[in-house]
User: What shape does this take?
Amino acid sequence: EMLDDLIIENAQCSKQAEIYSTVFAELMDARTGIISNNLNVLMKTLNIITILIMVPTFVVSAFSMNVLMPFDPHHPLVFWFIMALALLSVVFVLMVWRYKKW
Assistant: This one.
């Protein structure tokens, strides 16, 4: 009789260990999903920052090349014109992103 009780308890413990193992595996999968989502949000943020820095850098570098300008390069307002153009390019990119709801 005691041996039968031990066999039953052993089977119950085995079944409970199997259930806990399944629950633990599902918790690990859920944690992996959360980490993946957090990484996706971080990568999206870094890409947005990179593009926002890249666009005005491209505009300013295009005007800093040694080529003929359609206007007087020694005019005192040229610097502010280029800065305004760079800022407008950032605003344009932000407007496109807002329109596309990114």
About this structure: The radius of gyration is 31 Å. The mean pLDDT is 88. The chain is about 85% helix and 0% strand.
